Amino acid sequence: MSLGHFRAALMGQSFHWMLEKDRVLEDLSAMIDQTAGAVAFVAPRRISIPDELRAAQETLQEILERHLVNIPPGPHPQGRHEPFEEILKRSPFPRIEMIERVYETNRYPTIESLIGAEYTISHVLTRLGDNRAAFEREANAALKWFKEGSEVTVTCRDEALIGWR
Length: 165
What we know:
Helix content: 25-40%
Low-confidence stretches: none
Radius of gyration: 19 Å
Largest sheet: 4 strands, mixed
Shape: globular
Number of strands: 4
């Protein structure tokens, strides 16, 4: 079954979870333009955040780590793979380009949104399982000091690693 032909494939932070990265790029190659096609991996990064928001995120991370301490991580947590540049060099997309965009954005974080951000990491909800409610109770109690909904300015850097044919 063919999904069609495309000029490019774009992935967020999913590629590091894929078990057979070389095969994924080979399979994508069959669907991507043979002359000017590309694959791109896009990752958001925060350069600076206000101290209060950083403290809230660190508190949340500590609580989450306690709730996950005896639960094995997923198959490929970020960092346990070759650099993407090395994988791309031996793929059908060996010409590498990195682009970035730095900008400021205003956010209005709540405790619920901070917890929700942790849930966007693919393995967290599965690993928490029946401990989810206990984690949320502890997080809400520990972050009562956090001033929810206040405007904060965050400096971000979005990075895109592009592999061209």
